[in-house]
Amino acid sequence: MARSDLLLSIVRAGATGDRAALRSSVEAAVAEERSKNHHTLADRLQRALNAVAVTPPAASTSTAQTGKDTILETEPRQRLEDLILPLPVAQQVRQLIEEQHRADLLRAHGMQPRHRILLSGPPGNGKTSVAEGIAEALAVQFFTVRYDALVGSFLGETNTRLARLFDYARTVPCVLFFDEFDSIGKERGDSHETGEIKRVVSFLLMQIDQLPSYVVTVAATNHAELLDRAVWRRFQLRLALPKPTREALAAFLDRQFDTWPEPAGIEAKTLAGKLGSISFAEALEFCQTVRRQHILSLANRALKDILREQVELWATRVAPENTDATRSGKTSSSAEQSKGRSSTSVGRRRGTSKTV
């Protein structure tokens, strides 16, 4: 027998006349029955799907189809095996994937596989790649939420679109990815936020709670401190992806060197030390810049010479911490100057008072 959540999706899609949602839900049910060796039932479902015509309502748009407008659907290509992850993160992600693959065994014992993950850490260190890698490992669709199509300007509009988004996600096994989750899951106790935002957060948490276990929800944030406290309880896995250590960065650079047509002329660990504390994304961009320059040189320059030149240029780049320090320096300087002017002014007033 197909899962109750799939049956509900089939009924909902048939009632609304959504042919695409009906087909995807029935095909998911067929796949499940075949995995249980219920081939007769699977064949009957397939024949019924091919024989029944679904007529969409004349005056209304399908709820699930409208929800599709709020996501970006992509084919997952990133493999988890190609990522360099902290050991605890890699272990817990592998556990989640095993639970999803063996979900029937867990359900037979009254348990559900885990399916809600929160990824936290600075940008460029693999949060999106981990989400895509999970989708690739599970062989399911990868849905990225589009906030530009989700957030509305009218009262209640965002909640309506959220409902449609989650209704569509329920129609098929998938990974539903919320990037920059802090932009929608903000702390409700913030006095600067409006009542509408607080209602959106409450509705979002309720919808996440009601998602079936075959929808793996992955939320990523660069600012975990901004998340509502109730958000943390919703996620069964809370994983940190910090900037890579020098050893991890060296391993990543070594993989890049393996794809180059010439020797780099430098050890990966040495180069990692020269690049400093950077993200995987920055390291990849550096390596791609070296390859671009080598390609454009038409092999007239040695790759190791280009690499040496790019390392020197890298040292002159503007880094976020430098701009923060500059701002802090200007703020301190302005405060000191203001304090100095204030002291001088007080001194002058005191001097004037004594003279009088």
UniProtKB/TrEMBL annotation:
Superkingdom, natural source: Bacteria
Stored InterPro entries: AAA+_ATPase, AAA_ATPase_domain, ATPase_AAA_core, ATPase_AAA_CS, P-loop_NTPase
Regions of compositional bias (Polar residues) in chain numbering: 323-337
Pfam families: AAA
Start-end of Basic residues biased regions: 347-356
CDD domains the UniProt entry points to: RecA-like_protease
Keyword field: ATP-binding, Nucleotide-binding
UniProt entry tagged with the keyword Chaperone: no
Signal peptide span: none
Sample GO molecular function, one term: ATP binding
Chain segments carrying region Disordered: 320-356
Keyword Cytoplasm: no
Family, per entry: Belongs to the AAA ATPase family.
Protein name: AAA family ATPase
